[in-house]
């Protein structure tokens, strides 16, 4: 099951201990979307996570737990940030973290901008199918990435990748700005696009 594919130019191998395509293919609902999906999905590296917006976090946690029963792994389920996240961590026995499912049902974890409680529903309503999984529409993805950049840029300089993603979608800038204005109240006026 272990994929021997290499990350371009780095020499790092994908872990792929679990089959992410299989998880989403067998999930019974369509009430989710993968936010900030990496370009190499469904491949992943050790210590990776996948952020998944969903209507029902507990249903997704149960589905992930059931799915992982067929693998020889230890599973740890926890609820950080006072339950704003539901994490399902996958550990090969005797090893460190391999993969984390990070389920959310709102964007209330962002503190540097106030996100409307209606935004999560809007993202899910406007999701699109891409490579067999649901992802946000481009303007919604851009809003989430801007939120992520603003929230963490001071401690994680690598978050600049989200600004680069936004700039790579000039055809969606107008819709992105409209969506931002409708659902985001800026606490820190730092959005620069």
Descriptors for this entry?
193 residues; alpha+beta; Beta Polymerase, domain 2; five-stranded mixed β-sheet; two-stranded antiparallel ribbon; 7 helices; 9 strands; 22% strand; globular; disordered N terminus
Describe, in plain words, how this protein is organized in 3D.
This protein is α+β, with helices and mostly antiparallel strands and 193 residues long. The protein has a domain of 92 residues: Beta Polymerase, domain 2, CATH 3.30.460. The protein is built from seven helices and nine strands, in the order H-E-E-H-E-H-E-E-E-H-E-E-H-H-H-E. It has a five-stranded mixed β-sheet. Strands 6-9 form a two-stranded antiparallel ribbon. A hairpin with a 2-residue loop joins strand 7 and strand 8.
